[in-house]
């Protein structure tokens, strides 16, 4: 591989990293706080290539044989082309199924009280953490809240759950968090055919259901539900 081709490749890879940050695709892979680092990495790659180009234009000698680095440099194109031509979607119900019966992710109990107003929107992981912390549900007792998640088959084999994936750094460390739906009115229904189905639901916690025996999966009664699009970001933190 010549220096010119190698530098063009670095510019291409760097530009793609910046592009996926600008269009939001990066949130399929990492949490929002890491997006600036991805963009910075892209800028650095472009900068390194431009510095090399400037050096070549000034007649600076190469000083080494580039042929030995050709194969490894071309490998950079593989993940970049995957992102450009067939960008993987955010992880969904398949990742939850792979987790099997593993205990759901239970995060830190939020210090702040529930937002004021009727049925405030809260993160699904926050509801699970609050429900697991106190048998009576604590601040959730008697309150209606709004959750957004995707529908997955219940671990009990009957009905459906509402789930999200929680990431600490990137999609590689995603862990499922879910709630069991007591849906007497059939507002959510069965799982979507052939893929995920996102729903926003107004629910009320059934106290005492987030226990070690249930894998810290609380049950919520569905009061209302409507289909919705995938939020951005799709993950919780």
From TrEMBL:
The chain crosses the membrane at residues 34-54, 74-91. This is TIGR03943 family putative permease subunit. The keyword Membrane applies. The keyword Transmembrane helix applies. Keywords: Membrane, Transmembrane, Transmembrane helix.
